[in-house]
Every structure is written in C-alpha cells, then in structure tokens.
Amino acid sequence: MATRDYKTLKTQLEKLQVETEAARVAEVKAVIAEIRSRAAEYGLTAEDIFPRKKTRITKATAPLAPKYQDPKTGVTWSGKGRAPAWIRDVKNRDRFLIR
C-alpha cells in the first residue's frame, strides 16, 4: 500500500470539496427550475406551497362574576386565580359568599 503525505491528501480534499459544491449548486438550480415549471403548470402560488402558520386566536372571555365579597371593604373575588389576602387563610369561605 502506497503511503500518501498530508499535503497531497489535503489538496485532493480541497479539489473534491470544490467539485462537490459545484455539483450541489447545479442540482439546486435544476430542482428550482423543476419546481417553478410544475408550479406554473398547475397554477400554484407560493402561498399554496408554503402556507402561513395559523396563529391561535384567543377568545376574549367575559370577566367572571364575583363569588366572594369582603364584608369590611366590599372588595370582591371570583374564586379563580390567586386568593386575595382577606380570604387567603380562611378555612370556611361560606361567610364571604355573595348571595
């Protein structure tokens, strides 16, 4: 087996990289031409091929009706989310229910 030195192998590698890039560019051009001709043939637009991502539309929800009321200040709370300080440590919240 013949031994090759580093410089020779490096030169061959660089030549192959140049050839590889040229082949890739040629193939890309051919693929683009094919896609354009097919799109024209079928009347496709860029939007048909690459549709925009659908954005999630959030519903605007109506505020919840208050469920609890502080008898001292009249401040209300719907019962959803973090509990306010005036009701946070209360075990039985029935006395704060709005009837």
Automatic annotation (TrEMBL):
Family: Belongs to the histone-like protein H-NS family.
Name of the protein in its database record: DNA-binding protein H-NS
MF annotations from Gene Ontology: DNA binding
Keyword Membrane included in the entry's annotation: no
Residue stretches making up the DNA-binding protein H-NS-like C-terminal domain: 58-98
Gene3D superfamilies in the cross-refs: 4.10.430.30
SMART domains cross-referenced by the UniProt entry: HNS
